[in-house]
Amino acid sequence: MAYHHGDARTALVAAAAEWLEEVGAASLSLRGVAERAGLSRQAPYNHFADKEAMLAALVANGFRRLAVELRAAAADKTGAPALAAAGEAYIAFAQTTPALFRLMFARELVEVANFADAAGASADAFSVLSAVVATLCPTEQVEEVSLAAWCIVHGYATLCNEAGIELPARRSERARQFTRIIVTSAAVGLDDGSTSMKEFQ
């Protein structure tokens, strides 16, 4: 099949994303991805300088997808319910695409700061969380409370993937317990944190 320039890049990224979940980032290769996409072995080098550049494209797509899912989860909500929904969406994303989630934060494989597209997508995903937190606390505390909430949700999601702490049968109750912790963290920046907790409960 003949591909246009843009189509070939899209096909390569799609093939890489699919293969990533099967074998992990360390086992991906440009040539292997090309073969999986049905392209010549030279094709990846027309679009990516090296393997890191290809992985950076996956990272960018991952953060874009995460931002979309966080926005959708928190849509039509504010305050504690929005933060709770975003937290659960973050966990679901991590558990649905564990290899991609791991890659997005694996600096030994991709230095995101060196790739503008990936760095921008990462910042956008964080801005979604910050927008939710902004409905919970004073403006001057949004950044630090957002970072605290992110650390909590990311740590929990990572433990789910790497240590198997959350069994499918216990998903709902675990998620509820987890989101209460996030809301408590965000409420630190409020004059009356108990209001937010009551709103969530």
Short description:
With 201 residues, the protein is an all-alpha fold. The chain has nine helices and no strands.
Structural shape: elongated
Into which percent range does the helicity of residues fall? Answer: over 70%
What Rg is obtained from the alpha carbons, in whole angstroms? Answer: 19 Å
Q: CATH homologous superfamily name of the largest domain?
A: Tetracycline Repressor, domain 2
Distance between the termini: 56 Å
Secondary-structure map:
Blueprint: H1 5-23, H2 30-37, H3 51-74, H4 79-96, H5 98-104, H6 116-133, H7 142-163, H8 171-187, H9 193-200
Helix pairs in contact: 1-2, 3-4, 3-5, 3-6, 4-5, 4-7, 4-8, 4-9, 6-7, 7-8, 8-9
How would you explain this protein's 3D organization?
This protein has 201 residues and is mainly α. It folds into 2 domains: 1-48, Orthogonal Bundle (Arc Repressor Mutant, subunit A); 60-200, Tetracycline Repressor, domain 2 (Orthogonal Bundle), CATH 1.10.357. Helix content is 70%, strand content 0%. It is built from 9 helices and no strands. Helix 4 (79-96) packs parallel to helix 7, helix 4 crosses helix 8 (171-187) and helix 4 (79-96) crosses helix 9. The chain is elongated.
Which features does this protein show?
Tetracycline Repressor, domain 2; 0% strand; 2 domains; Arc Repressor Mutant, subunit A; disordered N terminus; elongated; disordered C terminus; mainly alpha; 201 residues
